[in-house]
Amino acid sequence: RILIVGSGPLAVELARETLDRPDAGFRVVGFADNDPELLGKSLINPRVIGMSSDLDNIVRRENIDRIVVAMGERRGQFPTDQLLHLSLSGNVSIEEGASFYERVTGRVHLDMVRPSWLIFSGRKRQARFNAVTRIALHRIGAFIGAILSLPIASITAILIKLESRGPVLYRQERVGRNGRTFMVMKFRSMRTDAEKDGPVWARSADDRVTRVGRIIRQIRVDEIPQFWNILKGDMNFVGPRPERPHFVSQLAEEIPYYEQRHLIAPGLTGWAQIKYPYGSSIEDARQKLQYDLYYIKNQSLALDAAILFETVKTILFSRGAR
Question: What is the per-residue pLDDT for 190?
């Protein structure tokens, strides 16, 4: 049973995301705010059930298990004394809105993030050992994958060559870890003049895609050459999708914290790829960044395994390809 302290857009967003996930085990009882005019008002479904200055009584009356704080720390308005008392009493759990949102949705809400929150919730030093282990496993997996996929890769190369003139492999500059660029490799799925007018977002039913290209994109065969990028150390199996420098420059100006996705190596697949459909706009990039930041903060072998499992399901059911 959750009480949300605050009534602004972020508090409403927290409630909406929680209500959309009834199986998560959380029930939003209502809101508490410092504006008496909002008392009793319904914000989305739960209403404002009390004043933030009266948290002790609300917790006892409504049998609250957890308080989620979704309001700014403005002097004279933030219920510091009440929250401190409740926290030290141990009768109720208190959680910051950004952390709760992350746990419920599996992504980081950019409008809730403050630099201090990212700093103090960063990965610990012992994560370095886990990172080395993960990189080794990713490269072993890429080596095995390259060998097993060799027959499919050979057939794909022949089909591409038979359908159209031009190279079998397509090399394109992408941004990797710490902003270093590298050349990603794919089987060519578009016409050779696909970008004669400059870089553009991929789109649904893209008329630049060849017939063979449409098939290999649908079953993700065009990604097989990226095993070589993983073996070289340019990429990992799991990580943020590597973007082109042209789009990175544009998105970094529009979206806060966008450059932070380059703190780790990009991936052949990732948390954002399995949680959000293929994006072709700035808003899509913003949504996917929220998942990328969640992955960067919480990366582990268990999370990697879950992502790879979901990726296999996506490939088998041919979802999200363009």
Answer: 83
279 CB neighbour count, 10 Å cutoff: 19
Burial label for 262, CB within 10 Å (0-12, 13-18, 19+), is buried
Spatial CA neighbour of 123 closest among 294, 259, 296, 256: 296
Cβ contacts of residue 249 below 8 Å, gap of 6+? none
Compute the CA torsion angle 199, 201, 204, 206 (nearest 10 deg): 0
304: Cβ contacts below 8 Å, ≥ 6 apart: 134, 237, 238
pLDDT value of residue 2: 94
Q: Which residues, given as ranges, of the chain have pLDDT below 70? A: 72-76, 116-129, 192-207, 318-322
Find tokens 């890769």 and name the residue. Answer: 153
H/E run at residue 296:
helix 282-298
The rounded Cα 2 to chain-centroid distance in angstroms is 25
Token readout for 232 is 């070289």
HEC sequence for 208-275: CECHHHHHHHHCCHHHCCHHHHHHHCCCEEECCCCCCHHHHHHHHHHCCCHHHHHHCCCEEECHHHHH
pLDDT score at 24? 83
Closest CA to 92 of 14, 32, 7, 9: 32
3-class DSSP assignment, residue 32: strand
Predicted pLDDT at 45: 79
